[in-house]
Specification:
Blueprint: H1 8-16, E1 26-29, H2 42-54, E2 59-62, H3 74-88, E3 93-97, H4 103-116, E4 120-124, H5 133-146, E5 151-155, H6 157-160, H7 166-172, E6 178-183, H8 188-197, E7 201-204, H9 210-215, E8 220-223, H10 230-241, H11 245-263, H12 269-279, H13 296-310
Parallel strand pairs: 1-2, 1-8, 2-3, 3-4, 4-5, 5-6, 6-7, 7-8
Helix pairs in contact: 2-3, 3-4, 4-5, 5-7, 7-8, 10-11, 11-13, 12-13
Function: Catalyzes the condensation of (S)-aspartate-beta-semialdehyde [(S)-ASA] and pyruvate to 4-hydroxy-tetrahydrodipicolinate (HTPA).
GO biological process, one term: lysine biosynthetic process via diaminopimelate
Family: Belongs to the DapA family.
Protein backbone atom coordinates (compact mmCIF):
# COMPACT_ATOMS: atom_id res chain seq x y z
CA UNK A 1 0.00 0.00 0.00
CA UNK A 2 1.34 3.40 -0.98
CA UNK A 3 1.59 5.66 2.07
CA UNK A 4 3.29 8.71 0.64
CA UNK A 5 2.33 11.19 -2.00
CA UNK A 6 -0.63 10.78 -4.34
CA UNK A 7 -3.58 13.00 -5.12
CA UNK A 8 -6.64 13.80 -3.05
CA UNK A 9 -8.79 10.97 -4.36
CA UNK A 10 -6.12 8.34 -3.73
CA UNK A 11 -5.42 9.50 -0.18
CA UNK A 12 -9.08 9.58 0.83
CA UNK A 13 -9.89 6.22 -0.72
CA UNK A 14 -6.91 4.55 0.94
CA UNK A 15 -8.39 4.90 4.41
CA UNK A 16 -12.08 5.64 3.94
CA UNK A 17 -12.59 2.45 1.95
CA UNK A 18 -11.77 -1.09 3.06
CA UNK A 19 -7.98 -1.07 2.94
CA UNK A 20 -5.93 -1.44 6.10
CA UNK A 21 -4.18 1.60 7.60
CA UNK A 22 -0.63 1.09 8.90
CA UNK A 23 -1.57 0.41 12.53
CA UNK A 24 -5.19 -0.65 12.18
CA UNK A 25 -8.28 1.51 12.64
CA UNK A 26 -9.52 1.08 16.21
CA UNK A 27 -6.57 1.89 18.48
CA UNK A 28 -6.79 2.27 22.24
CA UNK A 29 -4.52 4.72 24.07
CA UNK A 30 -4.09 2.20 26.84
CA UNK A 31 -3.59 3.19 30.46
CA UNK A 32 -0.49 1.88 32.23
CA UNK A 33 -1.65 -0.28 35.12
CA UNK A 34 0.14 0.17 38.44
CA UNK A 35 0.02 -1.87 41.63
CA UNK A 36 -1.55 -0.33 44.76
CA UNK A 37 1.94 0.78 45.80
CA UNK A 38 2.50 2.52 42.45
CA UNK A 39 4.84 -0.01 40.81
CA UNK A 40 4.44 -1.07 37.20
CA UNK A 41 1.85 -3.87 37.00
CA UNK A 42 2.96 -5.96 34.03
CA UNK A 43 0.49 -8.75 34.75
CA UNK A 44 -2.32 -6.21 34.84
CA UNK A 45 -1.11 -4.66 31.60
CA UNK A 46 -1.19 -8.06 29.91
CA UNK A 47 -4.70 -8.80 31.16
CA UNK A 48 -6.00 -5.38 30.12
CA UNK A 49 -4.38 -5.67 26.69
CA UNK A 50 -5.98 -9.09 26.19
CA UNK A 51 -9.37 -7.68 27.17
CA UNK A 52 -9.06 -4.73 24.80
CA UNK A 53 -8.02 -6.91 21.87
CA UNK A 54 -10.83 -9.32 22.63
CA UNK A 55 -13.33 -6.47 22.54
CA UNK A 56 -12.52 -4.88 19.22
CA UNK A 57 -9.18 -3.04 19.37
CA UNK A 58 -6.86 -3.80 16.47
CA UNK A 59 -4.06 -1.65 17.82
CA UNK A 60 -2.75 -0.51 21.20
CA UNK A 61 -0.82 2.68 21.89
CA UNK A 62 1.31 2.39 25.00
CA UNK A 63 3.09 5.10 26.99
CA UNK A 64 1.13 7.99 25.57
CA UNK A 65 -0.67 10.74 27.45
CA UNK A 66 -3.25 8.30 28.83
CA UNK A 67 -0.42 5.90 29.62
CA UNK A 68 1.16 8.50 31.93
CA UNK A 69 4.40 8.44 29.96
CA UNK A 70 5.91 11.46 31.75
CA UNK A 71 5.97 9.47 35.02
CA UNK A 72 7.32 6.14 33.76
CA UNK A 73 11.01 5.38 33.39
CA UNK A 74 12.75 4.37 30.16
CA UNK A 75 13.10 0.83 31.52
CA UNK A 76 9.41 0.66 32.42
CA UNK A 77 8.41 1.77 28.93
CA UNK A 78 10.48 -1.02 27.36
CA UNK A 79 9.21 -3.60 29.87
CA UNK A 80 5.64 -2.61 29.08
CA UNK A 81 6.11 -3.17 25.35
CA UNK A 82 7.74 -6.55 25.92
CA UNK A 83 5.00 -7.70 28.31
CA UNK A 84 2.10 -6.58 26.13
CA UNK A 85 3.69 -8.10 23.03
CA UNK A 86 3.97 -11.38 24.90
CA UNK A 87 0.27 -11.20 25.77
CA UNK A 88 -1.19 -10.23 22.39
CA UNK A 89 1.40 -11.66 20.01
CA UNK A 90 1.05 -10.44 16.45
CA UNK A 91 -2.72 -10.09 16.55
CA UNK A 92 -2.61 -6.31 16.81
CA UNK A 93 -0.22 -3.44 16.23
CA UNK A 94 1.72 -2.05 19.18
CA UNK A 95 2.74 1.59 19.01
CA UNK A 96 4.63 3.10 21.91
CA UNK A 97 5.25 6.70 22.89
CA UNK A 98 8.86 7.85 22.72
CA UNK A 99 8.42 11.61 22.54
CA UNK A 100 10.30 13.86 24.93
CA UNK A 101 11.55 17.46 24.93
CA UNK A 102 15.07 16.19 24.12
CA UNK A 103 15.90 14.88 20.63
CA UNK A 104 18.74 12.67 21.86
CA UNK A 105 16.55 11.08 24.51
CA UNK A 106 13.74 10.54 22.01
CA UNK A 107 16.15 8.81 19.63
CA UNK A 108 17.29 6.51 22.45
CA UNK A 109 13.69 5.63 23.30
CA UNK A 110 12.87 4.90 19.66
CA UNK A 111 15.76 2.46 19.43
CA UNK A 112 14.74 0.87 22.72
CA UNK A 113 11.16 0.49 21.48
CA UNK A 114 12.38 -1.32 18.39
CA UNK A 115 14.39 -3.76 20.49
CA UNK A 116 11.43 -4.33 22.82
CA UNK A 117 9.18 -5.40 19.95
CA UNK A 118 7.06 -2.36 19.09
CA UNK A 119 5.54 -2.02 15.62
CA UNK A 120 5.74 1.76 15.60
CA UNK A 121 6.52 4.83 17.68
CA UNK A 122 4.36 7.79 18.68
CA UNK A 123 6.41 10.99 18.67
CA UNK A 124 4.99 14.13 20.25
CA UNK A 125 6.30 17.62 19.57
CA UNK A 126 9.05 18.59 22.00
CA UNK A 127 7.25 20.37 24.80
CA UNK A 128 8.25 23.38 26.89
CA UNK A 129 11.07 24.51 24.58
CA UNK A 130 8.56 25.28 21.79
CA UNK A 131 10.93 24.91 18.80
CA UNK A 132 10.14 26.77 15.55
CA UNK A 133 8.83 24.74 12.63
CA UNK A 134 12.20 24.15 10.95
CA UNK A 135 13.64 22.78 14.20
CA UNK A 136 10.50 20.72 14.78
CA UNK A 137 10.82 19.20 11.34
CA UNK A 138 14.49 18.38 11.92
CA UNK A 139 13.61 16.75 15.26
CA UNK A 140 11.04 14.43 13.68
CA UNK A 141 13.35 13.52 10.81
CA UNK A 142 16.19 12.63 13.18
CA UNK A 143 13.91 10.41 15.24
CA UNK A 144 12.49 8.75 12.12
CA UNK A 145 16.02 8.07 10.88
CA UNK A 146 17.07 6.52 14.20
CA UNK A 147 15.27 3.18 13.88
CA UNK A 148 13.49 1.02 11.36
CA UNK A 149 10.08 1.61 12.95
CA UNK A 150 7.30 3.60 11.27
CA UNK A 151 6.42 6.86 13.02
CA UNK A 152 3.10 8.32 14.10
CA UNK A 153 3.45 12.05 14.76
CA UNK A 154 1.44 13.36 17.70
CA UNK A 155 0.02 16.84 17.18
CA UNK A 156 -1.37 18.07 20.50
CA UNK A 157 -0.50 21.77 20.85
CA UNK A 158 -2.72 22.20 23.90
CA UNK A 159 -0.18 20.16 25.87
CA UNK A 160 3.08 20.84 24.03
CA UNK A 161 2.64 24.53 23.24
CA UNK A 162 3.70 23.89 19.63
CA UNK A 163 1.52 23.03 16.65
CA UNK A 164 2.85 20.83 13.87
CA UNK A 165 1.71 23.17 11.14
CA UNK A 166 0.04 21.66 8.06
CA UNK A 167 2.87 22.86 5.81
CA UNK A 168 5.36 21.07 8.05
CA UNK A 169 3.29 17.89 7.88
CA UNK A 170 3.17 18.14 4.09
CA UNK A 171 6.97 18.16 4.00
CA UNK A 172 7.34 15.39 6.58
CA UNK A 173 4.96 13.15 4.62
CA UNK A 174 7.77 12.52 2.15
CA UNK A 175 9.85 10.68 4.75
CA UNK A 176 9.55 6.91 4.16
CA UNK A 177 9.01 6.09 7.84
CA UNK A 178 6.67 8.95 8.80
CA UNK A 179 3.35 7.30 8.02
CA UNK A 180 0.70 8.59 10.41
CA UNK A 181 -0.57 11.45 12.56
CA UNK A 182 -2.48 11.36 15.84
CA UNK A 183 -4.49 14.55 15.52
CA UNK A 184 -5.40 16.54 18.61
CA UNK A 185 -4.96 19.89 16.90
CA UNK A 186 -8.67 20.79 16.80
CA UNK A 187 -7.95 22.16 13.32
CA UNK A 188 -10.36 20.12 11.21
CA UNK A 189 -9.69 22.16 8.09
CA UNK A 190 -5.94 21.73 8.47
CA UNK A 191 -6.38 17.98 8.94
CA UNK A 192 -8.41 17.72 5.74
CA UNK A 193 -5.75 19.67 3.89
CA UNK A 194 -3.06 17.18 4.88
CA UNK A 195 -5.29 14.15 4.29
CA UNK A 196 -6.13 15.42 0.82
CA UNK A 197 -2.57 16.10 -0.24
CA UNK A 198 -0.62 13.23 1.34
CA UNK A 199 -0.91 9.54 2.13
CA UNK A 200 -0.49 10.11 5.87
CA UNK A 201 -2.85 7.97 7.92
CA UNK A 202 -4.76 10.43 10.11
CA UNK A 203 -6.02 9.14 13.46
CA UNK A 204 -8.46 11.11 15.58
CA UNK A 205 -6.89 11.74 18.96
CA UNK A 206 -10.01 13.42 20.34
CA UNK A 207 -12.91 10.99 20.65
CA UNK A 208 -15.52 13.54 19.64
CA UNK A 209 -13.85 13.62 16.20
CA UNK A 210 -13.71 9.86 15.63
CA UNK A 211 -16.50 9.67 13.07
CA UNK A 212 -16.02 13.12 11.57
CA UNK A 213 -12.36 12.56 10.74
CA UNK A 214 -13.01 9.04 9.48
CA UNK A 215 -15.72 10.35 7.16
CA UNK A 216 -13.30 12.70 5.38
CA UNK A 217 -10.60 10.06 4.84
CA UNK A 218 -9.10 9.55 8.28
CA UNK A 219 -7.60 6.18 9.19
CA UNK A 220 -9.41 5.67 12.49
CA UNK A 221 -8.77 6.74 16.06
CA UNK A 222 -6.36 6.53 18.98
CA UNK A 223 -8.86 6.61 21.80
CA UNK A 224 -8.71 7.06 25.56
CA UNK A 225 -12.41 6.27 25.88
CA UNK A 226 -11.77 2.90 24.19
CA UNK A 227 -10.21 1.73 27.45
CA UNK A 228 -13.74 1.20 28.74
CA UNK A 229 -16.03 0.94 25.67
CA UNK A 230 -13.86 -0.53 22.89
CA UNK A 231 -16.73 -2.36 21.21
CA UNK A 232 -19.02 0.66 21.16
CA UNK A 233 -16.42 2.90 19.52
CA UNK A 234 -15.42 0.23 17.01
CA UNK A 235 -19.09 -0.11 16.05
CA UNK A 236 -19.13 3.54 14.91
CA UNK A 237 -16.45 2.85 12.30
CA UNK A 238 -17.93 -0.51 11.34
CA UNK A 239 -21.33 1.04 10.62
CA UNK A 240 -19.77 3.77 8.51
CA UNK A 241 -17.73 1.23 6.56
CA UNK A 242 -20.90 -0.75 5.95
CA UNK A 243 -22.44 2.34 4.36
CA UNK A 244 -24.90 3.02 7.18
CA UNK A 245 -24.09 6.62 7.99
CA UNK A 246 -27.25 7.25 10.08
CA UNK A 247 -26.41 4.32 12.37
CA UNK A 248 -22.78 5.37 12.72
CA UNK A 249 -23.93 8.89 13.61
CA UNK A 250 -26.35 7.59 16.24
CA UNK A 251 -23.65 5.41 17.78
CA UNK A 252 -21.24 8.34 17.91
CA UNK A 253 -23.92 10.50 19.51
CA UNK A 254 -24.67 7.79 22.04
CA UNK A 255 -21.02 7.76 23.10
CA UNK A 256 -20.82 11.56 23.33
CA UNK A 257 -21.94 11.93 26.99
CA UNK A 258 -19.30 9.41 28.09
CA UNK A 259 -16.68 11.14 25.95
CA UNK A 260 -17.60 14.43 27.60
CA UNK A 261 -17.49 12.92 31.09
CA UNK A 262 -14.11 11.33 30.51
CA UNK A 263 -12.38 14.00 28.43
CA UNK A 264 -14.03 17.38 29.00
CA UNK A 265 -15.18 17.46 32.61
CA UNK A 266 -12.03 18.81 34.21
CA UNK A 267 -10.09 15.61 34.90
CA UNK A 268 -7.31 14.15 32.72
CA UNK A 269 -8.20 11.11 30.64
CA UNK A 270 -5.76 8.91 32.55
CA UNK A 271 -7.63 9.71 35.76
CA UNK A 272 -11.11 9.10 34.38
CA UNK A 273 -10.14 5.96 32.46
CA UNK A 274 -8.48 4.42 35.51
CA UNK A 275 -11.43 5.36 37.70
CA UNK A 276 -13.85 3.59 35.37
CA UNK A 277 -11.61 0.59 34.79
CA UNK A 278 -11.31 0.13 38.54
CA UNK A 279 -15.08 0.38 38.95
CA UNK A 280 -15.49 -2.27 36.25
CA UNK A 281 -13.01 -4.62 37.88
CA UNK A 282 -10.42 -4.29 35.13
CA UNK A 283 -6.68 -3.73 35.71
CA UNK A 284 -5.72 -0.09 36.20
CA UNK A 285 -4.54 0.77 39.69
CA UNK A 286 -3.71 4.28 40.86
CA UNK A 287 -2.38 7.20 38.85
CA UNK A 288 1.08 8.52 39.62
CA UNK A 289 1.68 11.95 41.07
CA UNK A 290 1.20 14.72 40.18
CA UNK A 291 -2.12 13.26 39.03
CA UNK A 292 -4.61 12.38 41.74
CA UNK A 293 -7.46 9.87 41.70
CA UNK A 294 -11.00 10.87 40.89
CA UNK A 295 -13.28 11.56 43.84
CA UNK A 296 -16.37 9.54 44.64
CA UNK A 297 -18.76 12.03 43.04
CA UNK A 298 -16.74 12.03 39.82
CA UNK A 299 -16.60 8.23 39.76
CA UNK A 300 -20.37 8.01 40.23
CA UNK A 301 -20.89 10.42 37.34
CA UNK A 302 -18.51 8.46 35.12
CA UNK A 303 -20.23 5.19 35.97
CA UNK A 304 -23.61 6.69 35.13
CA UNK A 305 -22.36 7.93 31.74
CA UNK A 306 -20.81 4.53 31.08
CA UNK A 307 -24.02 2.68 31.87
CA UNK A 308 -25.98 4.90 29.50
CA UNK A 309 -23.43 4.33 26.74
CA UNK A 310 -23.51 0.53 26.97
CA UNK A 311 -27.23 0.13 27.71
Amino acid sequence: MELHGGDTETAVMTYAASQTPPFGRALCAMVTPFTPSGALDLDGAQRLAEWLVGHGCDGLVLSGTTGEAPTTSDAEKAELVTAVREAVGDRVSLVTGVGTFDTRHTVELARSAEKAGADGVLVVSPYYSRPPQDALEAHFREVADASGLPVMLYDIPGRTGTRIEPETLLRLAGHPRIVAVKDCSYDFLGAQKVIGRTGLAYYAGCDEHNLALYAVGGAGYVSTVANVVPEQLRAVLDAFEAGDTPVSARLQQRAAPLIESMMAAGLPGAVTAKALLGALGLPAGPVRAPLRPAGREAVDGLRDAYERCVA
